[in-house]
Design goal:
Blueprint: H1 10-17, H2 20-30, E1 45-51, H3 63-69, E2 73-78, E3 84-90, E4 98-99, E5 102-103, H4 104-121, E6 125-131, E7 135-142, H5 145-157, H6 166-177, E8 182-187, H7 194-205, E9 209-216, H8 218-222, E10 229-231, E11 240-242, H9 244-268, E12 272-277, H10 282-297
Helix pairs in contact: 2-10, 4-5, 6-7, 7-9
């Protein structure tokens, strides 16, 4: 990773610094049910053991249990004054679609980096789950400036490819999260709505707070094509050549029906849901989103 990442450019960082107060209110206003206090402190209380998974800090291994059972277990604590957040980013092939303003993955990656920057600046604990048909990369939640570099490095190394299965990735992430967390899923959600339900149900059962952010290109929303075009599948679908003028209405009908199904599945689970398009400047979308969250929490 170079000194300046395309996921956290100086102009974006400058704008984010002006949002930190708003982000702090969001954390305190909508997640206080997860913490005994919104104030910072070092008080922790042991809660349970959990089986070790790759990516967990070795320092949290219970060496006595390991010596007695020859099985690695992690000590979990209720860090009551610290928010734990897991950012889940879709790295499937469809996220590589590039319209006039770049790829959905770059936009979603910048959004993910921005959220991580804001929370880490407020001393929260942040992790990352990069997924396609399964979890491809797990960065265990930590706090501190070094964590931002780890998250950015993971984004820089990612290339959108393969099929998407956020429902499966949510269940895999839940296996690693332990205590209640804020989970932010960033995806284009070009999947059957039913495939989300099991993952959302698992997170809800574990009492995690969930925000789903859908990122789309305006081409997908408006279908502006006018000439004969060959459409190539980005997740192993066969290519198809057609007259888009004739196909447009059928596409839009299916797109809108699918959007309604997603909305029902996500909101029905109790999760918060918002859709962003890549033509709108990221900082505007993020500011609007944070102000909405701020209002919801007060």
């Amino acid at each position: 990773m170079g000194s300046v990442s395309r996921y956290l450019e100086p102009a974006l960082v400058e704008s984010l610094n002006q949002l930190q107060i708003s982000a702090r209110r969001v954390v305190e206003g909508t997640t206080t049910g997860h913490h005994a206090s919104a104030l910072k402190g070092a008080s922790v209380e042991f809660r349970q053991h959990r089986f070790y998974v790759p990516g967990d800090p070795p320092r949290r291994l219970d060496w006595r249990v390991l010596a007695r059972t020859d099985r690695p277990y992690i000590k979990e604590y209720d860090e009551e004054t610290n928010l734990k957040c897991v950012l889940m980013l879709d790295g499937s092939g469809s996220m590589g679609y590039a319209g006039a303003t770049g790829t959905k993955f770059d936009y979603a990656g910048k959004l993910t980096a921005a959220l991580a920057y804001l929370m880490l600046a407020n001393t929260e604990t942040v992790g990352l789950s990069l997924f396609s048909s399964k979890m491809d990369r797990w960065v265990a939640p930590r706090s501190g400036h070094g964590q931002l570099f780890r998250l950015i490095d993971a984004l820089e190394r990612a290339t959108p490819r393969g099929e998407s299965s956020p429902g499966k990735a949510m269940q895999e992430s839940a296996d690693r999260m332990g205590r209640r967390s804020l989970v932010v899923l960033v995806s284009d959600l070009l999947i059957p709505a039913a495939s989300l339900r099991a993952g959302l149900a698992r997170l809800g059962h574990d009492r995690h707070e969930v925000i789903v952010i859908r990122v789309l290109d305006t081409d997908e929303v408006e279908f502006p094509f006018r000439r004969w075009t060959r459409f190539r599948g980005l997740e192993n679908e066969p290519s198809r050549e057609c007259d888009p003028v004739l196909a447009r209405q059928e596409y839009l009908d299916k797109f809108r029906r699918h959007a309604r199904e997603l909305d029902a599945a996500i909101r029905g689970s109790g999760a918060e849901y918002v859709t962003l398009t890549t033509d709108k400047p990221l900082i505007e979308s993020l500011t609007s989103f944070l102000h909405h969250r701020d209002g919801r929490g007060t």
